[in-house]
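Weekly structure sync, notes
Attendees: PL (lead), two postdocs, one rotation student
Agenda item 3: pending single-chain targets
PL asked that the sequence for the first pending target be pasted directly into the notes so everyone works from the same version. It is reproduced below exactly as submitted, 279 residues in total.
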Amino acid sequence: MGKFTTLLRATGLAVSVAMPAMAEDASTILATVNGKDITLGHIIALQERLPEQYKSLDDKVLYDGILDQLIQQTALADEMRKESNLGVSLGLENEQTAFLSSEYLSKVGSAEISDEDVKAAYAEQYADVAPEQEFSAAHILVEDEDLAKELAEKAKGGADFAELAKEHSTGPSGPRGGDLGWFGKGQMVPEFEQAVIGLEDGAVSEPVQTQFGWHVVKRNESRNKAAPTLDEVRADIISKLKSDAVQAAIDNVTDAADVTRVEVEIDPAMIRKVELLSE
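Predicted structure, written out during the meeting:
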C-alpha cells in the first residue's frame, strides 16, 4: 500500500471522527463500558425520567451529563456485580418491580380525558350545589373583656371601626383596620363564625370570646357565592378523573392477579434484621 493511500485513509478517518454521522435511531452506540454498549436509547430513556428542572437544561449539557452519568453508573454497577449478595439481588428485583409498576400507572394516568367525561363529572359535582353564603367582616382583637365592651359601645355609637382597630387591635389585621376580607362557612373558628352569621350587614357585635382573645366584630357585607363555572374547575376535575383512573387500575389489576398470602407467623420486628441479607 502506497504512502499516499495510507495518508488518504488516515485523513478520511480523521474527518469521520471530527464529523461523525448523525445518530438516527435508539440503537446508535455512543460508548462501550467493559463490553456493554450505551446507546442513544439509554440516554433518551433516562432523560424522560428526569425531574422537570433538569429537562429545561440545554440539550448539549443534558446529553453530555447523561452520557457521563451512564458511563460512570455502568462501570460502578460492574464492580458491584463482582461482590453481589442477596441484599443487592433482592434490591434489584424491588427496583425493577417499582419501575415497571410506575411505568404502567404513568401510562394509565396520561390517558386522554374526554370532554364528555369532564362535563359529566362537573354536572355530578355541582349540579345540585346551592349558593354558598360568604361574608366580609372586620374585627378588633383585644385581651381584656372590659376593653372589648368599651370598644363595642364606641363602634355602635358611630366611632370609625377601622380607626378603633388600628389603634387597639392586637391581631395581624389591625393595621388594615381589622379587615378580614371575604370568607365562607367553616373558615373561621365556630364562635367567631356564629357571631358573624348572627349580625345584619353593617352591624357590630357584642364582645365575642375565642381561643385568641376577645373580638368586637363588624359584618360589612354578605353575598351568595354561586358554584364555579366549568372552566374554573376544569383542571381540578381532569386531575381528579386521572387520579381515580389510576386508583381503579391499581384495584382492578391487583384484584385480577393470582395472589396467595402464605399463612406464616412473622414477628414484624424481623423487617429490621438487615443481617439476614448477607447470610
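Discussion points:
- Strands lie at 29-33, 36-39, 132-142, 179-184, 208-210, 213-225.
- Residues 82 and 261 are 34 Å apart (CA to CA).
Action: rotation student to compare against the earlier draft before next sync.
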